[in-house]
From TrEMBL:
<dbReference type="GO" id="GO:0006574">
    <property type="term" value="P:L-valine catabolic process"/>
</dbReference>
<feature type="domain" description="Aldehyde dehydrogenase">
    <location>
        <begin position="16"/>
        <end position="477"/>
    </location>
</feature>
<dbReference type="InterPro" id="IPR010061">
    <property type="entry name" value="MeMal-semiAld_DH"/>
</dbReference>
<dbReference type="InterPro" id="IPR016162">
    <property type="entry name" value="Ald_DH_N"/>
</dbReference>
<dbReference type="GO" id="GO:0004491">
    <property type="term" value="F:methylmalonate-semialdehyde dehydrogenase (acylating, NAD) activity"/>
</dbReference>
<dbReference type="InterPro" id="IPR016160">
    <property type="entry name" value="Ald_DH_CS_CYS"/>
</dbReference>
<dbReference type="InterPro" id="IPR016163">
    <property type="entry name" value="Ald_DH_C"/>
</dbReference>
<dbReference type="InterPro" id="IPR016161">
    <property type="entry name" value="Ald_DH/histidinol_DH"/>
</dbReference>
<dbReference type="InterPro" id="IPR015590">
    <property type="entry name" value="Aldehyde_DH_dom"/>
</dbReference>
<keyword id="KW-0520">NAD</keyword>
<keyword id="KW-0560">Oxidoreductase</keyword>
<protein>
    <recommendedName>
        <fullName>methylmalonate-semialdehyde dehydrogenase (CoA acylating)</fullName>
        <ecNumber>1.2.1.27</ecNumber>
    </recommendedName>
</protein>
<dbReference type="Pfam" id="PF00171">
    <property type="entry name" value="Aldedh"/>
</dbReference>
<dbReference type="GO" id="GO:0006210">
    <property type="term" value="P:thymine catabolic process"/>
</dbReference>
């Protein structure tokens, strides 16, 4: 059976000491294996990245950008192949995979402008004949650790900018769907990146822990679940590293009584069930203000959900695919069970759908649950499946309080026709990314992405302008060239 290995110093590095199965989630069958890197293999990658750093750091910024331009072209040329690889291991339908890839490519596009982004700050004559400027220098070897749900896009949030800034990189992708991630890194190599600048090590906790503790790693970017994000942030910090760790979510949409209900239903359908709800920006809770709005939402949603198709990635007419593993399928079903047990009303039940020809696949159908309350486990925790829960409240303030009290603060949205209410919401809600009649307010590549509260540990958001700050350190230089005529005497006073 095919084993997905590593990419170290520009070479494929097979490694079959420890392996894990990769499944095709639509068939439920093992399709490949992935190598799980040992400490020694990760150290080999760090050594390669360390060796490549001095030359890459000193490569003119225009030449670094030129690699990104070629990389972008290669990603576009090979888009179909990448989307197919994503479909085979993640289960995502091709239109959804194409969207993910496009959002990833936009980060490469942003990195193409690195010369402009890295320009420093300059001040002339800060003192007599003294000039001062700040420049943004790369950190050295940096690492990225990524989740299964966006095997192309999330890694592309990280390394194009890190590398364009002059760093060398080690990526540890998700072990559940690593093939497209590895293939994309090979395309970067093909774009002319010198060996060792970009390395991929596949693996699990053993590999991650080396990246978190090895002194040669300067910074770590992480995206994944909150419990692991917190562990990554604490361990990286303890080991003196800069760290940004993006975690899980529970994204609420407020549906106001004045909302265009048909539009809200259409938007919620895609945002709740797209990608089987396995998005950190999925809208998984609709907070309906008033029973009239709630009843209209639930009845229209119930009708609209009848036309949804869940099925394999091989049929692009499907709306969404399976969830990632059998274990995750059982977990999502378990949350639906618990909501039912806690007294919520299962309006549309997606447990155990029968998909002809894919009876062993890890499918969960679109599920709608009404009368959910904040004490329920299914409300408190991230389900990460195609489940939309409806919470009924009486006022907008009550709806906002619910969102502000939740431990996560990744994304949120309001559906309304009232500009004043929308403005108040955007100003006061304790969430990092806010949509107004926009269900998935994922920032474009020239803004930055990040949640608040327990959805992000660290100070800087991912990609965009924050990535320049995260992957560089500021150096401020003050200079004077005294000629013999202006030499000054000794002074013990603080310079002013
Ligand atoms: P995960 O936390 O299980 O895994 C993420 C990464 O951490 C993987 O590379 C994995 O190998 C590694 N890992 C797992 N357990 C580890 C451990 N004990 N020690 C060290 N490393 C470990 O997440 P996942 O299931 O792959 O992804 C889904 C989660 O990611 C969801 O919670 C989702 O909300 C979140 N996510 C967040 C964002 C965001 O931007 N905030 C984006 C995408 C996904």
């Amino acid at each position: 059976m095919n084993t997905v290995g590593h990419l170290i110093n520009g070479q494929h590095r097979p490694d079959a000491t420890r392996t894990q199965d990769i499944y095709n989630p639509a068939t439920g069958k093992v399709s490949k294996q992935v190598a799980l890197a040992s400490k020694e293999t990760v150290e080999e990658a760090i050594t390669a990245a360390q060796a490549a750093y001095p030359a890459w750091r000193n490569t003119p910024v225009g030449k670094r950008a030129a690699v990104m331009f070629r990389f972008k072209a290669l990603l576009e040329q090979n888009a179909d192949k990448i989307c197919q690889m994503i479909g085979e291991e993640h289960g995502k339908i091709s239109h959804d995979a194409a969207g993910e890839l496009q959002r990833g490519i936009e980060n490469v596009e942003y990195a193409c402008g690195i010369a402009e982004l890295l320009k420093g700050e300059h001040s002339k004559n800060v003192g007599p004949n003294i000039d001062s400027w700040s420049e943004f220098q790369p950190l050295g070897v940096v690492a990225g650790i990524t989740p299964f749900n966006f095997p192309a896009m999330v890694p592309l949030w990280m390394y194009p900018m890190a590398i364009a800034c002059g760093n060398t990189f080690i990526l540890k992708p998700s072990e559940r769907d690593p093939s497209s991630t590895l293939y994309i890194a090979e395309l970067l190599q093909e774009a002319g990146l010198p060996d060792g600048v970009m390395n991929v090590v596949n693996g699990d906790k053993e590999a991650v822990d080396v990246l978190l503790t090895d002194k040669r790693i300067q910074a770590v970017s992480f995206v994944g679940s909150t419990a692991i994000a917190e562990y990554i942030y604490e361990t990286a910090n303890k080991n003196g590293k800069r760290c940004q760790a993006l975690g899980g979510a529970k994204n609420h949409a407020i549906v106001m009584p004045d909302a265009d209900m048909d539009n809200a239903v259409n938007q919620l359908l895609g945002a709740a069930f797209g990608s089987s709800g396995e998005r950190c920006m999925a809208l998984s809770v609709a907070v309906a203000v008033g029973d009239t709005a709630a009843d209209a939402l639930v009845s229209k949603m119930t009708v609209a959900m009848q036309s949804l198709n869940v099925g394999a990635a091989t049929d692009s007419n499907n709306d969404f695919g399976p969830v990632i593993t059998r274990q995750h399928q059982l977990k999502v079903n378990g949350y639906i069970d618990s909501a039912e047990k806690d007294g919520a009303r299962i309006v549309v039940d997606g447990r155990n759908p029968q998909i002809a020809g894919f009876e062993e696949g890890f499918f969960v159908g679109a599920t709608l649950i009404d009368a959910v309350t904040p004490e329920m486990v299914s409300y408190k925790e991230e389900i990460f499946g195609p489940v939309l829960q409806v919470v009924r409240v009486n006022t907008m303030d009550e709806a906002m309080q619910l969102i502000n009290d939740h431990e996560y603060g990744n994304g949120t949205c309001i559906f309304t026709r009232d500009g004043e209410a929308a403005r108040y919401f955007a100003d006061n809600i304790l969430v990092g990314m806010v949509g107004i009649n926009v269900p998935l307010p994922v920032p474009v590549s020239y803004h930055s992405f990040g949640g608040w509260k327990r959805s992000l540990f660290g100070d800087l958001h991912a990609y965009g302008p924050d990535a320049v700050r995260f992957y560089t350190k500021r150096k401020t230089i003050t200079q004077r060239w005294p000629s013999s005529g202006v030499r000054e005497g000794v002074s013990f006073a603080f310079p002013s």
